[in-house]
Amino acid sequence: MTQLVLHNYDLDDACYRVRLVASCCDLPVELRNVDMFPGMEQVSPPYLTLNPLGRLPILETADVTLRQTGAILLYLAGLDPKKRFLPAEAPNWRR
After folding, report:
1. pLDDT tens across 72-83, in order?
2. The dihedral of CA 32, 50, 67, 82: what is its sign?
3. What is 20-80 written as a DSSP string?
4. What is the CA radius of gyration of the chain?
5. Burial label, 34 (beta-carbon count in 10 A; 0-12, 13-18, 19+)
6. CA 92 to chain centre
7. Phi, then psi, of 33 in degrees rounded to 5
8. Closest CA to 17 of 63, 93, 88, 85
9. How far is Cα 1 from Cα 10, in angstroms, rounded to an integer?
10. Which of 40, 77, 86, 89 is the most exposed place for a label (fewest CB within 10 A)?
11. Distance CA 17, CA 15 (A)
12. Contact status, residue 29 vs residue 41, Cβ threshold 8 Å
């Protein structure tokens, strides 16, 4: 299993969504709490190297760093051992 590290602020709704999906997928996530308010730690130089936009959440693995909530949620859904959150086949939208 890949080590998942979530840079997190507990009161941020996007971080909550990531924690929720990880929990539903039974994926262990190491939380690194960020002093987003009032400290603005997400715009400090170390965090700007992880995400130049200065936003949370940020998910790090050994292979990839994901910076957008949607991308993180899709990544976690793809790691779900029971594959409950992604369709088995892509829908055909052409008619």
Report:
1. 999 999 999 998
2. negative
3. HHHHHTT--EEEEE---TTT-GGGSHHHHHH-TT--S-EEE-SS-EE-SHHHHHHHHHHH-
4. 15
5. buried
6. 28
7. -70, 135
8. 85
9. 25
10. 89
11. 5
12. no
pLDDT of residue 91: 72
Give the DSSP letter of residue 93: -
Please report which confidence band the pLDDT of residue 9 belongs to, taking 50, 70 and 90 as the band edges. Answer: very high
CB-side neighbour CA atoms (13 Å) of 3? 5
Residue 68 tokens, joined:
């957008």
Q: What is the mean pLDDT of residues 42-54?
A: 92
